[in-house]
């Protein structure tokens, strides 16, 4: 039987990838952030699952106004780093896990989550930056990856509750897979940030702190947050945080918080990371 | 026009049906800049390239003038607008500063973020902002 062993939440700011790719991590601006990654990376070196399910969003890269699905599961053998406008990141190609991905997909659809299927998907910084945060600069990524892409940029996004329930269904699906695999699940994006408009740069540490506390001990509280709660309190792009709910829903009711890190600023974003282990 | 309960959040442009419809062609033009072959064509003659996409005169001018805030007001979404910033090899903070009210330079925006970011206090609603 496969099982989900742990979860990670992390922001996926593109500047983090650029800093790493261009050798800037020792600069004063980046140094405190990369120092905060150290304990997280140390944990990842000791806990390498067979597969990571990475819940992320596309940023006008592979999806755009012409076609946009709410939840998309990647079932390909491999996923290439995408050209988002400045050339693809020079990071390893992401290896998929089609067998488990198809199993999860079938299970989810029979549970009435009407997923879209991606048989070809170039992945942008939303997916590759979390890999870099966890695993630094390896020749190849140490785990297979199942991308789960969520619409968080085009209104109406799925609700926070729906994301949590999707996570719960993913947990049930994984536990029905007949191979002995360990699985990690990552929720990416956030925390509070707004990139567009006259209010660009708004962050809300109190909101973020409550969110992180609730992710650990009262996840149902954050399933009640509305679109407007996120837009108003966490900034227009802060709604990415609903992807952490998918991760949390896929874990046990009780979890151990292994690591938490919060840092302002990364570009215009409040950075947050957290590692949770199933008890 | 359907009113939304987030309409009173100041300085915020949500990619909802209203902006989707207004900015469809504009965003689809910006989307093409993901491909280097299109970036090269755009660099060669910006005006001629944009004119292929059936955008309004105001949208075209906002692109040529790099008037990022005006682009959002005309239906562009910030993630699509990034394509222009990347094309120009600028840091995103340059765009964030230009859109800010009052406008900030790259350094001023960077400094605001290093000092803890723009405060949410006074920025939750247009009413709260007015009252300071």
Provide structural commentary.
The complex is a heterodimer of chains A (279) and B (132). Chain A is α/β, with parallel strands linked by helices and 279 residues long. Chain A has one domain (3-278): LigB-like (Protocatechuate 4,5-dioxygenase, Chain B, 3-Layer(aba) Sandwich). Chain A has nine helices and ten strands. Chain A has an eight-stranded mixed sheet, with helices on both faces. In chain A, strand 9 (255-266) and strand 10 form a beta hairpin. The model of chain A has no long low-confidence stretch (mean pLDDT 97). With 132 residues, chain B is mainly alpha-helical. Chain B folds into two domains: 13-89, Dioxygenase LigAB, LigA subunit (Protocatechuate 4,5-dioxygenase, Chain A, Orthogonal Bundle); 91-123, no CATH class. Chain B contains nine helices and no strands. Chain B has helices at 17-32, 36-44, 46-50, 57-64, 68-73, 78-87, 92-99, 106-114, 126-130. The radius of gyration of chain B is 16 Å and the shape is globular. The model of chain B has no long low-confidence stretch (mean pLDDT 96). The chains are: A alpha/beta (279), B mainly alpha (132). At the A-B interface, helix 6 and helix 8 of A face helix 1, helix 6, helix 7 and helix 8 of B.
Keywords:
heterodimer; A: 279 residues; alpha/beta; Protocatechuate 4,5-dioxygenase, Chain B; 10 strands; globular; B: 132 residues; mainly alpha; Protocatechuate 4,5-dioxygenase, Chain A; 9 helices
Task: Note the topology.
The complex is a heterodimer of chains A (279) and B (132).
Chain A (H helix, E strand, L loop, with lengths): L2 E8 L3 H8 L9 H16 L4 E6 L14 E4 L3 E2 L14 E2 L2 H13 L5 E3 L6 H11 L8 E7 L9 H16 L6 E7 L16 H13 L1 H5 L3 H8 L7 H8 L5 E12 L2 E10 L1
Parallel strand pairs in A: 1-8, 2-7, 2-8, 3-6
Antiparallel strand pairs in A: 1-10, 3-7, 4-5, 9-10
Helix pairs in contact in A: 1-4, 3-5, 5-9
Chain B lengths: L16 H16 L3 H9 L1 H5 L6 H8 L3 H6 L4 H10 L4 H8 L6 H9 L11 H5 L2
Helix pairs in contact in B: 1-6, 7-8
């Amino acid at each position: 039987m496969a099982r989900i062993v742990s979860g990670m939440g992390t922001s996926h700011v593109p500047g983090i990838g650029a800093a790493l790719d261009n050798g800037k991590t020792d600069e004063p601006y980046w140094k405190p952030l990369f120092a905060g990654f150290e304990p997280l990376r140390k944990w990842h070196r000791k806990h390498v699952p067979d597969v990571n399910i990475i819940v992320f969003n596309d940023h006008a890269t592979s999806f755009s106004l012409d076609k946009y699905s709410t939840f998309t599961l990647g079932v390909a053998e491999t996923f290439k780093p995408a050209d988002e406008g400045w050339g693809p990141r020079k990071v390893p190609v992401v290896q998929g896990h089609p067998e488990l991905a198809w199993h999860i997909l079938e299970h989810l659809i029979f549970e009435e989550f009407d997923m879209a299927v991606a048989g070809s998907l170039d992945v942008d910084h939303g997916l590759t930056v979390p890999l870099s945060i966890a695993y630094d600069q390896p020749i190849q990524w140490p785990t297979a990856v199942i991308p789960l892409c969520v619409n968080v940029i085009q209104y109406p996004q799925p609700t926070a509750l729906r994301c949590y329930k999707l996570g719960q269904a993913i947990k049930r699906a994984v536990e029905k897979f007949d191979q002995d695999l360990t699985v990690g699940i990552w929720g990416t994006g956030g925390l509070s940030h707004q990139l567009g408009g006259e209010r660009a740069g708004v962050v809300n540490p109190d909101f973020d702190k409550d969110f992180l506390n609730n992710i650990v001990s009262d996840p149902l509280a954050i399933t009640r947050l509305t679109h407007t709660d996120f837009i108003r309190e966490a900034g227009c792009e802060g709604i990415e945080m609903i992807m952490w709910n998918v991760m949390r829903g896929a874990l046990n009711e009780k979890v151990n918080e292994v690591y938490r890190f919060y840092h302002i600023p990364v570009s215009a974003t409040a950075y947050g990371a957290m590692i949770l282990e199933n008890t | 026009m359907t009113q939304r309960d987030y309409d009173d959040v100041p300085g915020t442009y949500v990619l909802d049906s209203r902006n989707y419809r207004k900015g469809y062609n504009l965003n689809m033009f910006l989307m093409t800049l993901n491909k280097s072959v299109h970036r090269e064509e755009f660099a060669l003659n910006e005006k001629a390239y944009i004119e292929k996409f059936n955008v309004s005169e105001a949208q075209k001018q906002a692109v040529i003038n790099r008037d990022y805030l005006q682009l959002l007001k005309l239906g562009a979404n910030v993630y699509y607008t990034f394509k222009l910033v990347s094309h120009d090899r600028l840091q995103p903070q340059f765009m964030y500063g230009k859109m800010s009210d009052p406008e900030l330079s790259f350094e001023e925006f960077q400094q605001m973020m290093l000092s803890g970011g723009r405060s949410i206090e006074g920025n939750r609603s247009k009413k709260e902002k007015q009252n300071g």
